[in-house]
Design goal:
binds ligand L45E5XJ5, five-stranded parallel β-sheet, Rossmann fold, 228 residues, binds guanosine-5'-triphosphate
């Protein structure tokens, strides 16, 4: 008999660790990590109609409009009929959440609640490999060679909108748009909120919660993998 598919979303302000935690969840539980940022970058690189449009917003540090995000992401999710997945970065508005609702039933939503000072420190120290979206932090997970991506060896960059001046506006915007989404998932009884300043301290709670809902991958039960 086929195992029941599991569909989850991870939400949180910029720098809250969605990408970092999603990678751990994907590794431990075998869910496919779907990142809206990665879909956007792929579409921009491929010069699709949606990608060209999205680029004009991202370059100005703006959120991509709902109709572009849904047009881009929902068909991809509809294709994933045989996979369990974890979506990172979508939905981030109520309109996006309603559109997602009409496509699939979510099993669980993780919401990360991280203090502003922590986000500011993390993001001002975040380095990105633009082509892949791989992220580093000089203290938490530094690249093997300073300023260079571990896999490609290409240079890392910092985003202007990760600097404190831009971050205040991004966080205010996140709070405004995320509140109704969080309220929606709360009312459905699928929201789980995690607060803290360190990913390594939050992770065991997320791991325990997911362990009650999805079996961890057999190989990760028997092998030592470098997760706290
Ligand atoms: N110091 C420190 N840095 C962390 C921790 N967890 C994640 N980071 C770093 O913080 C930065 C933000 O983490 P991400 O996983 O990119 O956060 P995100 O929520 O996906 O961010 P967006 O893509 O902007 O929405 C990265 O540079 C991470 O390496 C932590 O516990 N401590
Ligand atoms: N729902 C979303 C998700 C992302 N964006 C834009 O993409 C940029 C990169 O996303 P990351 O998750 O990789 O940081 C982000 O800064 C937004 O401009 C969006 O508009 N809507």
């Amino acid at each position: 008999m086929m195992a029941k598919l599991f569909r989850a979303v991870i939400m949180g302000p910029p720098g809250s660790g969605k990408g970092t935690i999603s990678e751990r969840i994907a590794q431990r539980f075998g869910l496919k990590h779907l990142s809206s940022g990665d879909f956007l970058r792929e579409n921009i690189a491929a010069n699709t109609e949606a990608g060209v449009l999205a680029k004009t917003y991202i370059e100005r540090g703006l959120m991509v409009p709902d109709h572009v995000m849904t047009r881009l992401l929902l068909p991809r999710l509809e294709e994933m009929t045989c996979h369990s997945w974890l979506m990172d970065g979508f939905p981030c508005t109520l309109a996006q959440a309603k559109a997602l609702n009409s496509t699939c039933d979510l099993d669980l939503v993780i919401s990360l609640n991280i203090p502003y000072e922590t986000l500011k420190d993390r993001l001002s120290d975040r380095w990105i490999h633009p082509a892949s979206g791989r992220v580093y932090n000089m203290g938490f997970n530094p690249p093997r060679v300073q300023g260079r991506d571990d896999l490609s060896g290409e240079p890392l960059i910092q985003h202007d909108d990760d600097q404190p001046e831009a971050l205040v506006a991004r966080l205010r915007h996140y709070k405004d748009v995320a509140k109704p989404v969080i309220d929606l998932y709360k009312s459905k009884g699928i929201l789980h909120m995690f607060s803290g300043t360190e990913t390594d301290r939050i992770w065991p709670y997320i791991n325990s919660l997911l362990s009650t809902k999805i079996p961890s991958r057999p190989e990760t039960d028997t092998q030592h993998i470098p997760l706290p």
